[in-house]
Amino acid sequence: MGEQFAAQSVIEELLRHHAGTPKRNAFGRFFGYSPLDADSVSWYLGAKGEIEVGKVLATLPPEWTVFHDLPIGKKGSDIDHLVIGPGGIVTINTKNHSGKKIWVAGQTLMVSGQKVPYIRNADFEANRVTALLRERMPQLQAAQPARPALFPPAENARARFTALDTEVRAARVRRSLWLVAAFVAVFGGYLLVGPQLVTAIIGLLFSGAQ
Question: Is 181 exposed, middle or buried (0-12, 13-18, 19+ CB in 10 A)?
Fold first, then answer.
């Protein structure tokens, strides 16, 4: 279990989606078009979120053990992070909603005014792990059959995600620079042409009034 890294299954799913995305041409790269298509964005954001949580969990004291991306069930579902230590066993379900407004009260969680079932899902995962541990605790020394993977693992998934992440961030920076350049051009044009245009309009109004 310790061989799995944070966001591994999400990254592999992202790479499968991205494999069919046409490469950006020189025009797209120059103007900072994202290398991701619409279907890949959610997988990319999910991977980024799990990676960030993994970094935080890596700072826990040594008496805590952290596992990532643990397969559970038979339909490709997994536990994002499993933490074991003096305080017990904790399952963590990661979601990435950077820049969104989050509201929590009891069992209700809302993202930008939209109710989402994250707390219910997290409870379900925790209860599922608890049930599995109670069932298999006496059998830990026995060999357990491996669950077959739905897809073969992607080669060099971490390195390929790092390269893709670099492309996405570079495209974002380039788009921001073009937006700044466009604003400067428009504002500069207004300063140069705007006063002359206002003077011309006033002149026309006065000439029409005479």
Answer: exposed
